[in-house]
Specification:
Layout: E1 6-12, H1 15-24, E2 30-37, H2 68-71, H3 75-81, H4 95-104, E3 109-112, H5 115-119, H6 122-128, E4 133-134, H7 142-145, H8 147-156, E5 164-167, H9 170-179, E6 183-188, E7 197-199, H10 203-216, E8 222-226, E9 231-239, E10 244-252, E11 255-257, E12 261-264, E13 269-272, H11 279-298, E14 306-315, E15 319-326, H12 333-337, H13 345-353, E16 368-372, E17 374-376, E18 384-388, E19 390-391, E20 398-402, E21 405-408, E22 411-416, E23 418-426, H14 429-440, E24 443-444, E25 448-449
Parallel strand pairs: 1-2, 1-3, 3-4
Antiparallel strand pairs: 5-8, 6-7, 6-8, 9-10, 9-14, 10-13, 11-12, 13-16, 14-15, 16-23, 17-23, 17-25, 18-22, 19-24, 20-23, 21-22
Protein backbone atom coordinates (compact mmCIF):
# COMPACT_ATOMS: atom_id res chain seq x y z
CA UNK A 1 0.00 0.00 0.00
CA UNK A 2 1.22 3.48 -0.83
CA UNK A 3 0.47 5.47 2.31
CA UNK A 4 0.71 8.73 0.36
CA UNK A 5 -2.34 7.83 -1.69
CA UNK A 6 -5.72 9.29 -0.83
CA UNK A 7 -8.54 7.83 1.20
CA UNK A 8 -12.06 8.81 0.17
CA UNK A 9 -15.40 8.49 1.92
CA UNK A 10 -18.61 8.61 -0.17
CA UNK A 11 -21.88 9.27 1.65
CA UNK A 12 -25.04 7.66 0.27
CA UNK A 13 -26.54 4.38 -0.85
CA UNK A 14 -27.88 4.77 -4.38
CA UNK A 15 -26.78 4.34 -7.97
CA UNK A 16 -25.22 7.78 -7.94
CA UNK A 17 -22.98 6.82 -5.01
CA UNK A 18 -22.07 3.51 -6.63
CA UNK A 19 -21.05 5.36 -9.80
CA UNK A 20 -19.07 7.97 -7.83
CA UNK A 21 -17.24 5.30 -5.83
CA UNK A 22 -16.59 3.24 -8.97
CA UNK A 23 -15.04 6.22 -10.74
CA UNK A 24 -13.08 7.44 -7.72
CA UNK A 25 -11.63 3.95 -7.26
CA UNK A 26 -10.10 4.20 -10.74
CA UNK A 27 -7.95 7.18 -9.76
CA UNK A 28 -4.23 6.32 -9.47
CA UNK A 29 -4.12 8.83 -6.61
CA UNK A 30 -6.67 6.92 -4.50
CA UNK A 31 -5.88 3.85 -2.39
CA UNK A 32 -9.16 3.43 -0.47
CA UNK A 33 -12.83 4.23 -1.04
CA UNK A 34 -15.46 3.73 1.65
CA UNK A 35 -19.19 4.16 1.17
CA UNK A 36 -21.69 4.79 3.94
CA UNK A 37 -24.11 3.10 4.02
CA UNK A 38 -23.52 1.78 0.49
CA UNK A 39 -25.36 -1.06 -1.20
CA UNK A 40 -24.67 -4.53 -2.58
CA UNK A 41 -22.78 -3.06 -5.52
CA UNK A 42 -20.40 -0.84 -3.59
CA UNK A 43 -19.20 -3.87 -1.65
CA UNK A 44 -17.32 -4.81 -4.83
CA UNK A 45 -15.21 -1.65 -4.94
CA UNK A 46 -14.91 -0.62 -1.32
CA UNK A 47 -13.55 -2.48 1.67
CA UNK A 48 -16.48 -1.49 3.85
CA UNK A 49 -15.88 -0.54 7.44
CA UNK A 50 -17.32 -2.86 10.10
CA UNK A 51 -16.15 -1.50 13.45
CA UNK A 52 -14.51 1.52 15.01
CA UNK A 53 -10.98 2.15 13.82
CA UNK A 54 -9.31 0.81 10.70
CA UNK A 55 -9.73 -2.94 11.13
CA UNK A 56 -10.55 -4.69 7.88
CA UNK A 57 -9.14 -2.05 5.55
CA UNK A 58 -7.59 -3.55 2.43
CA UNK A 59 -6.07 -2.19 -0.74
CA UNK A 60 -8.18 -1.94 -3.84
CA UNK A 61 -6.90 -4.20 -6.57
CA UNK A 62 -6.28 -1.57 -9.23
CA UNK A 63 -4.71 -4.06 -11.61
CA UNK A 64 -7.95 -5.99 -11.95
CA UNK A 65 -9.82 -2.92 -13.12
CA UNK A 66 -12.90 -2.00 -11.10
CA UNK A 67 -15.10 -1.87 -14.18
CA UNK A 68 -14.67 -5.62 -14.64
CA UNK A 69 -16.38 -6.25 -11.32
CA UNK A 70 -19.69 -5.07 -12.70
CA UNK A 71 -19.84 -6.40 -16.25
CA UNK A 72 -20.46 -9.89 -14.94
CA UNK A 73 -22.22 -9.02 -11.70
CA UNK A 74 -23.56 -12.49 -10.96
CA UNK A 75 -24.72 -13.32 -7.45
CA UNK A 76 -21.80 -15.61 -6.67
CA UNK A 77 -19.29 -12.91 -7.50
CA UNK A 78 -21.19 -10.30 -5.47
CA UNK A 79 -21.24 -12.67 -2.50
CA UNK A 80 -17.52 -13.47 -2.81
CA UNK A 81 -16.61 -9.79 -2.92
CA UNK A 82 -18.51 -9.20 0.29
CA UNK A 83 -17.56 -12.46 2.09
CA UNK A 84 -15.63 -10.76 4.88
CA UNK A 85 -18.27 -8.12 5.52
CA UNK A 86 -21.94 -7.92 6.30
CA UNK A 87 -24.66 -5.63 5.02
CA UNK A 88 -24.26 -1.94 5.92
CA UNK A 89 -20.64 -2.54 6.92
CA UNK A 90 -19.96 1.19 7.08
CA UNK A 91 -23.03 2.41 8.91
CA UNK A 92 -22.32 5.88 10.18
CA UNK A 93 -25.56 6.91 11.84
CA UNK A 94 -24.90 10.55 12.65
CA UNK A 95 -22.87 13.53 11.52
CA UNK A 96 -20.67 13.10 14.58
CA UNK A 97 -19.89 9.50 13.58
CA UNK A 98 -19.05 10.62 10.03
CA UNK A 99 -16.69 13.31 11.31
CA UNK A 100 -15.10 10.92 13.80
CA UNK A 101 -14.53 8.24 11.16
CA UNK A 102 -13.02 10.78 8.76
CA UNK A 103 -10.64 12.10 11.43
CA UNK A 104 -9.66 8.70 12.84
CA UNK A 105 -9.01 7.20 9.40
CA UNK A 106 -7.23 10.16 7.79
CA UNK A 107 -9.86 10.66 5.09
CA UNK A 108 -8.56 13.02 2.42
CA UNK A 109 -11.91 13.82 0.80
CA UNK A 110 -15.56 13.24 1.72
CA UNK A 111 -17.91 13.19 -1.29
CA UNK A 112 -21.52 13.85 -0.37
CA UNK A 113 -24.21 12.21 -2.51
CA UNK A 114 -27.77 12.85 -1.26
CA UNK A 115 -29.28 16.29 -0.79
CA UNK A 116 -30.47 15.51 2.74
CA UNK A 117 -26.92 15.38 4.08
CA UNK A 118 -26.26 18.78 2.51
CA UNK A 119 -29.38 20.45 3.90
CA UNK A 120 -28.56 19.09 7.35
CA UNK A 121 -25.11 20.69 7.27
CA UNK A 122 -22.71 17.76 6.99
CA UNK A 123 -20.26 19.82 4.91
CA UNK A 124 -20.30 22.59 7.53
CA UNK A 125 -19.41 20.07 10.24
CA UNK A 126 -16.68 18.44 8.18
CA UNK A 127 -15.17 21.83 7.30
CA UNK A 128 -15.24 22.88 10.95
CA UNK A 129 -13.28 19.73 11.81
CA UNK A 130 -10.68 20.50 9.14
CA UNK A 131 -11.86 17.71 6.79
CA UNK A 132 -12.05 18.44 3.08
CA UNK A 133 -15.51 17.80 1.64
CA UNK A 134 -16.96 18.02 -1.84
CA UNK A 135 -20.36 19.67 -1.68
CA UNK A 136 -22.00 22.93 -0.63
CA UNK A 137 -22.70 24.12 2.89
CA UNK A 138 -26.23 24.02 4.27
CA UNK A 139 -26.82 27.64 3.31
CA UNK A 140 -25.39 27.15 -0.17
CA UNK A 141 -27.58 24.08 -0.72
CA UNK A 142 -30.68 26.27 -0.27
CA UNK A 143 -30.48 26.60 -4.04
CA UNK A 144 -31.95 23.10 -4.11
CA UNK A 145 -33.97 22.75 -0.93
CA UNK A 146 -35.82 26.02 -1.41
CA UNK A 147 -37.23 26.43 -4.89
CA UNK A 148 -38.42 29.93 -3.96
CA UNK A 149 -34.87 30.94 -2.98
CA UNK A 150 -33.53 29.56 -6.28
CA UNK A 151 -36.13 31.40 -8.36
CA UNK A 152 -35.45 34.67 -6.53
CA UNK A 153 -31.71 34.33 -7.22
CA UNK A 154 -32.41 33.67 -10.90
CA UNK A 155 -34.50 36.84 -10.99
CA UNK A 156 -31.80 38.84 -9.25
CA UNK A 157 -29.10 37.65 -11.68
CA UNK A 158 -31.33 37.91 -14.81
CA UNK A 159 -31.05 34.17 -15.42
CA UNK A 160 -33.92 33.22 -17.75
CA UNK A 161 -36.66 31.24 -16.01
CA UNK A 162 -40.42 30.76 -16.15
CA UNK A 163 -42.71 33.40 -14.63
CA UNK A 164 -43.61 32.46 -11.05
CA UNK A 165 -45.34 33.30 -7.81
CA UNK A 166 -44.51 32.11 -4.29
CA UNK A 167 -47.43 31.20 -2.04
CA UNK A 168 -47.16 30.54 1.69
CA UNK A 169 -50.68 29.26 2.27
CA UNK A 170 -53.18 27.16 0.29
CA UNK A 171 -55.54 30.12 0.14
CA UNK A 172 -52.88 32.39 -1.32
CA UNK A 173 -51.86 29.71 -3.83
CA UNK A 174 -55.44 29.25 -5.04
CA UNK A 175 -55.85 33.02 -5.34
CA UNK A 176 -52.73 33.25 -7.56
CA UNK A 177 -53.90 30.30 -9.67
CA UNK A 178 -57.30 31.84 -10.23
CA UNK A 179 -55.81 35.18 -11.28
CA UNK A 180 -53.14 33.89 -13.69
CA UNK A 181 -54.00 31.03 -16.04
CA UNK A 182 -50.33 30.65 -17.04
CA UNK A 183 -49.55 29.19 -13.60
CA UNK A 184 -50.14 25.50 -14.15
CA UNK A 185 -47.03 24.07 -12.48
CA UNK A 186 -47.19 23.59 -8.70
CA UNK A 187 -43.93 22.87 -6.87
CA UNK A 188 -43.44 22.19 -3.19
CA UNK A 189 -40.74 24.58 -2.00
CA UNK A 190 -38.68 22.02 -0.11
CA UNK A 191 -37.09 18.64 -0.81
CA UNK A 192 -39.46 15.92 -2.03
CA UNK A 193 -37.15 13.30 -3.63
CA UNK A 194 -38.12 14.47 -7.12
CA UNK A 195 -41.80 13.94 -6.44
CA UNK A 196 -43.02 17.36 -5.27
CA UNK A 197 -43.83 18.76 -8.71
CA UNK A 198 -47.27 18.75 -10.34
CA UNK A 199 -47.62 19.74 -14.00
CA UNK A 200 -51.31 20.15 -14.83
CA UNK A 201 -53.62 21.37 -17.57
CA UNK A 202 -56.48 23.02 -15.70
CA UNK A 203 -57.27 25.21 -12.71
CA UNK A 204 -59.10 22.34 -11.00
CA UNK A 205 -56.03 20.09 -11.31
CA UNK A 206 -53.78 22.86 -10.00
CA UNK A 207 -56.00 23.31 -6.95
CA UNK A 208 -55.97 19.55 -6.40
CA UNK A 209 -52.14 19.70 -6.45
CA UNK A 210 -52.19 22.43 -3.80
CA UNK A 211 -54.36 20.24 -1.55
CA UNK A 212 -52.11 17.23 -2.23
CA UNK A 213 -49.04 19.16 -1.12
CA UNK A 214 -50.79 20.43 2.00
CA UNK A 215 -51.80 16.87 2.85
CA UNK A 216 -48.32 15.44 2.33
CA UNK A 217 -46.13 18.10 3.96
CA UNK A 218 -45.86 19.46 7.50
CA UNK A 219 -45.33 23.00 6.27
CA UNK A 220 -46.78 24.76 3.25
CA UNK A 221 -44.87 26.84 0.76
CA UNK A 222 -45.14 26.43 -2.99
CA UNK A 223 -43.79 27.93 -6.17
CA UNK A 224 -46.39 28.36 -8.90
CA UNK A 225 -44.89 28.54 -12.37
CA UNK A 226 -45.84 29.30 -15.91
CA UNK A 227 -45.98 26.05 -17.84
CA UNK A 228 -43.37 25.75 -20.58
CA UNK A 229 -42.91 23.05 -23.19
CA UNK A 230 -39.79 21.63 -24.77
CA UNK A 231 -36.65 19.56 -24.27
CA UNK A 232 -35.66 19.17 -20.65
CA UNK A 233 -31.91 18.74 -20.08
CA UNK A 234 -29.57 18.24 -17.13
CA UNK A 235 -26.42 20.37 -17.10
CA UNK A 236 -23.72 19.41 -14.57
CA UNK A 237 -21.28 22.19 -13.65
CA UNK A 238 -18.34 21.98 -11.27
CA UNK A 239 -18.00 25.08 -9.11
CA UNK A 240 -14.97 26.02 -7.00
CA UNK A 241 -16.49 29.16 -5.52
CA UNK A 242 -15.27 31.41 -8.31
CA UNK A 243 -16.07 29.76 -11.61
CA UNK A 244 -18.41 27.20 -13.14
CA UNK A 245 -17.02 24.57 -15.49
CA UNK A 246 -19.56 22.57 -17.53
CA UNK A 247 -19.03 18.86 -17.01
CA UNK A 248 -21.77 17.23 -19.10
CA UNK A 249 -25.26 17.63 -20.49
CA UNK A 250 -27.60 14.64 -20.35
CA UNK A 251 -31.32 14.00 -20.51
CA UNK A 252 -33.26 12.39 -17.71
CA UNK A 253 -36.65 10.66 -18.03
CA UNK A 254 -38.64 11.47 -14.90
CA UNK A 255 -42.06 10.08 -15.72
CA UNK A 256 -42.81 6.56 -14.56
CA UNK A 257 -44.29 5.08 -17.73
CA UNK A 258 -43.59 4.82 -21.46
CA UNK A 259 -44.26 7.95 -23.46
CA UNK A 260 -43.46 10.19 -20.49
CA UNK A 261 -46.75 9.36 -18.79
CA UNK A 262 -47.59 8.81 -15.15
CA UNK A 263 -46.22 10.36 -11.97
CA UNK A 264 -42.83 11.96 -11.54
CA UNK A 265 -40.10 9.74 -10.11
CA UNK A 266 -36.52 10.16 -9.03
CA UNK A 267 -35.63 9.22 -12.63
CA UNK A 268 -36.24 6.20 -14.88
CA UNK A 269 -33.17 6.58 -17.08
CA UNK A 270 -30.78 9.02 -18.72
CA UNK A 271 -28.52 9.33 -21.72
CA UNK A 272 -25.98 11.48 -23.51
CA UNK A 273 -25.02 13.04 -25.80
CA UNK A 274 -28.23 14.99 -26.43
CA UNK A 275 -28.61 15.99 -30.09
CA UNK A 276 -30.49 19.19 -29.25
CA UNK A 277 -27.54 20.51 -27.24
CA UNK A 278 -25.25 21.68 -30.02
CA UNK A 279 -22.45 24.23 -29.89
CA UNK A 280 -24.79 27.09 -30.72
CA UNK A 281 -27.00 26.25 -27.75
CA UNK A 282 -23.97 25.70 -25.52
CA UNK A 283 -22.80 29.24 -26.37
CA UNK A 284 -26.21 30.65 -25.44
CA UNK A 285 -26.22 28.78 -22.14
CA UNK A 286 -22.72 30.05 -21.39
CA UNK A 287 -23.68 33.66 -22.09
CA UNK A 288 -27.15 33.82 -20.55
CA UNK A 289 -26.84 31.40 -17.65
CA UNK A 290 -23.33 30.30 -16.66
CA UNK A 291 -21.70 33.74 -17.08
CA UNK A 292 -24.46 35.40 -15.04
CA UNK A 293 -24.16 32.82 -12.27
CA UNK A 294 -20.38 33.36 -12.23
CA UNK A 295 -20.93 37.11 -12.01
CA UNK A 296 -23.12 36.52 -8.97
CA UNK A 297 -20.29 34.53 -7.36
CA UNK A 298 -17.71 37.22 -8.09
CA UNK A 299 -19.91 39.97 -6.67
CA UNK A 300 -20.80 38.04 -3.54
CA UNK A 301 -24.50 37.76 -4.36
CA UNK A 302 -24.27 34.12 -3.30
CA UNK A 303 -21.58 31.55 -2.51
CA UNK A 304 -21.26 28.00 -3.76
CA UNK A 305 -18.80 25.12 -4.04
CA UNK A 306 -19.59 21.68 -5.38
CA UNK A 307 -21.66 20.30 -8.24
CA UNK A 308 -24.32 22.68 -9.53
CA UNK A 309 -26.92 20.74 -11.48
CA UNK A 310 -28.84 23.17 -13.70
CA UNK A 311 -32.17 21.91 -15.00
CA UNK A 312 -32.74 23.43 -18.43
CA UNK A 313 -35.83 23.64 -20.61
CA UNK A 314 -35.54 24.41 -24.31
CA UNK A 315 -38.80 26.08 -25.30
CA UNK A 316 -39.29 26.67 -29.05
CA UNK A 317 -40.91 30.05 -28.40
CA UNK A 318 -39.22 31.24 -25.21
CA UNK A 319 -35.70 29.89 -25.75
CA UNK A 320 -33.65 28.28 -22.99
CA UNK A 321 -34.86 28.64 -19.40
CA UNK A 322 -33.65 27.35 -16.05
CA UNK A 323 -36.21 25.14 -14.34
CA UNK A 324 -34.35 24.53 -11.09
CA UNK A 325 -31.03 24.00 -9.40
CA UNK A 326 -29.84 20.88 -7.65
CA UNK A 327 -26.73 21.13 -5.53
CA UNK A 328 -25.35 17.61 -6.01
CA UNK A 329 -24.86 15.00 -8.70
CA UNK A 330 -28.16 13.89 -10.19
CA UNK A 331 -29.42 10.34 -10.19
CA UNK A 332 -29.59 8.64 -12.73
CA UNK A 333 -27.61 11.20 -14.74
CA UNK A 334 -24.43 10.46 -12.79
CA UNK A 335 -24.55 6.79 -13.79
CA UNK A 336 -24.75 7.85 -17.45
CA UNK A 337 -22.13 10.61 -17.31
CA UNK A 338 -19.23 9.13 -15.33
CA UNK A 339 -18.43 6.20 -17.66
CA UNK A 340 -17.64 8.83 -20.33
CA UNK A 341 -15.43 11.01 -18.11
CA UNK A 342 -11.82 10.83 -19.28
CA UNK A 343 -10.31 12.88 -16.48
CA UNK A 344 -9.50 11.76 -12.95
CA UNK A 345 -12.65 12.35 -10.88
CA UNK A 346 -10.74 12.53 -7.61
CA UNK A 347 -8.47 15.27 -8.96
CA UNK A 348 -11.47 17.24 -10.21
CA UNK A 349 -13.47 16.99 -7.00
CA UNK A 350 -10.51 17.79 -4.78
CA UNK A 351 -9.58 20.82 -6.87
CA UNK A 352 -13.18 21.95 -6.70
CA UNK A 353 -13.32 21.63 -2.91
CA UNK A 354 -10.01 23.49 -2.57
CA UNK A 355 -11.13 26.34 -4.84
CA UNK A 356 -8.59 25.75 -7.60
CA UNK A 357 -10.33 24.35 -10.66
CA UNK A 358 -8.45 24.62 -13.93
CA UNK A 359 -9.81 26.80 -16.71
CA UNK A 360 -10.27 23.93 -19.16
CA UNK A 361 -13.51 21.96 -18.85
CA UNK A 362 -13.32 18.22 -18.06
CA UNK A 363 -12.95 15.88 -21.03
CA UNK A 364 -15.65 13.41 -22.06
CA UNK A 365 -15.41 10.50 -24.46
CA UNK A 366 -17.13 11.02 -27.81
CA UNK A 367 -19.09 7.83 -27.29
CA UNK A 368 -22.71 7.55 -26.14
CA UNK A 369 -24.03 6.36 -22.79
CA UNK A 370 -27.50 5.12 -21.84
CA UNK A 371 -28.76 4.21 -18.36
CA UNK A 372 -32.09 2.42 -17.89
CA UNK A 373 -33.35 1.95 -14.35
CA UNK A 374 -34.85 -1.33 -13.18
CA UNK A 375 -37.55 -0.49 -10.64
CA UNK A 376 -40.19 -2.30 -8.63
CA UNK A 377 -43.60 -2.57 -10.24
CA UNK A 378 -45.34 -0.18 -7.82
CA UNK A 379 -42.60 2.46 -7.82
CA UNK A 380 -42.77 5.34 -6.90
CA UNK A 381 -45.72 4.64 -4.59
CA UNK A 382 -44.12 1.58 -3.00
CA UNK A 383 -40.68 0.06 -2.58
CA UNK A 384 -39.49 -3.54 -2.37
CA UNK A 385 -37.35 -5.10 0.36
CA UNK A 386 -35.68 -8.48 0.67
CA UNK A 387 -36.72 -9.90 -2.71
CA UNK A 388 -33.88 -11.98 -4.25
CA UNK A 389 -32.33 -10.64 -7.45
CA UNK A 390 -30.98 -12.92 -10.15
CA UNK A 391 -28.29 -11.47 -12.38
CA UNK A 392 -27.03 -13.34 -15.41
CA UNK A 393 -24.17 -12.44 -17.74
CA UNK A 394 -24.09 -8.70 -18.30
CA UNK A 395 -23.02 -7.80 -21.89
CA UNK A 396 -19.59 -6.37 -22.58
CA UNK A 397 -19.80 -2.59 -22.61
CA UNK A 398 -22.34 -2.44 -19.78
CA UNK A 399 -21.56 -1.42 -16.20
CA UNK A 400 -24.18 -2.55 -13.70
CA UNK A 401 -24.64 0.08 -11.02
CA UNK A 402 -26.67 -0.84 -7.95
CA UNK A 403 -29.30 1.55 -6.60
CA UNK A 404 -31.64 -0.03 -4.07
CA UNK A 405 -29.92 -3.32 -3.23
CA UNK A 406 -28.61 -5.09 -0.15
CA UNK A 407 -26.97 -8.40 0.68
CA UNK A 408 -28.90 -10.79 2.90
CA UNK A 409 -27.42 -14.19 3.74
CA UNK A 410 -25.02 -13.88 0.81
CA UNK A 411 -27.79 -13.07 -1.68
CA UNK A 412 -28.38 -9.74 -3.42
CA UNK A 413 -31.90 -8.52 -2.62
CA UNK A 414 -34.08 -5.51 -3.33
CA UNK A 415 -33.86 -2.57 -0.95
CA UNK A 416 -35.86 0.32 -2.35
CA UNK A 417 -37.83 1.48 -5.37
CA UNK A 418 -35.09 1.95 -7.95
CA UNK A 419 -33.06 -1.26 -7.86
CA UNK A 420 -30.40 -1.46 -10.61
CA UNK A 421 -28.99 0.87 -13.26
CA UNK A 422 -27.34 -0.93 -16.17
CA UNK A 423 -25.35 1.67 -18.11
CA UNK A 424 -24.17 0.95 -21.64
CA UNK A 425 -21.44 2.76 -23.57
CA UNK A 426 -21.32 2.44 -27.35
CA UNK A 427 -20.60 4.43 -30.50
CA UNK A 428 -24.14 5.81 -30.75
CA UNK A 429 -27.19 6.36 -28.56
CA UNK A 430 -29.24 3.66 -30.36
CA UNK A 431 -26.43 1.11 -29.92
CA UNK A 432 -26.00 1.99 -26.25
CA UNK A 433 -29.75 1.81 -25.69
CA UNK A 434 -29.91 -1.66 -27.25
CA UNK A 435 -27.05 -2.83 -25.01
CA UNK A 436 -28.71 -1.48 -21.86
CA UNK A 437 -31.97 -3.22 -22.73
CA UNK A 438 -30.07 -6.44 -23.42
CA UNK A 439 -28.52 -6.19 -19.95
CA UNK A 440 -31.97 -5.83 -18.41
CA UNK A 441 -32.92 -9.18 -19.93
CA UNK A 442 -30.22 -10.69 -17.69
CA UNK A 443 -31.83 -9.26 -14.54
CA UNK A 444 -34.78 -10.82 -12.78
CA UNK A 445 -36.66 -10.24 -9.53
CA UNK A 446 -40.32 -10.37 -8.57
CA UNK A 447 -42.02 -7.16 -9.70
CA UNK A 448 -39.23 -6.06 -12.07
CA UNK A 449 -40.26 -3.14 -14.29
CA UNK A 450 -38.50 -0.65 -16.55
CA UNK A 451 -39.17 1.70 -19.44
CA UNK A 452 -38.16 0.47 -22.88
CA UNK A 453 -38.25 3.94 -24.47
CA UNK A 454 -35.37 5.60 -22.61
CA UNK A 455 -33.29 7.55 -25.15
CA UNK A 456 -35.49 6.28 -27.98
CA UNK A 457 -36.53 9.62 -29.41
CA UNK A 458 -34.29 12.20 -27.82
CA UNK A 459 -37.29 12.90 -25.60
CA UNK A 460 -39.63 15.84 -25.81
CA UNK A 461 -40.28 16.07 -22.10
CA UNK A 462 -43.62 17.30 -20.83
CA UNK A 463 -42.69 20.56 -19.11
CA UNK A 464 -41.34 22.14 -15.93
CA UNK A 465 -41.00 18.69 -14.34
Amino acid sequence: MNSAKARVLVLGSGGREHALAWKLAQSPQVSHVWVSPGNAGTAGIADLYRSAGTAGIADLDKSAGTADLFRSADLDKSADLNKSAQLANLQLQSHDEIVAFAKNNTIDLVVVGPEGYLKDGIVDKLNAAGILAFGPTAEESRLEWSKAHAKELMLQLSVPTAAFKVAESPEQAIEFLEKDERLRVVKYDGLAAGKGVFVVDSLAEAIDAVHEIKKGQKDFKVVLEEKLFGEELSLFCLCDGKKLLPLAVSQDHKRRFEGDLGPNTGGMGAYLPVAAYDQSLADIVQERIIARLEQGLRHGVYTFKGLLFIGLLLDAEKGVNVLEFNTRFGDPETEAVLPLLQDDLYVLLRACAEGRLAEAPPRLSNKASVTVIAVTENYPAQSSYGVPIKIGTIPEGVTLFHCGTAIKDGVVVTNGGRILAPTAVADSVPEARALALAALKEIDFAGLSYRTDIAKRGGLCRSNS
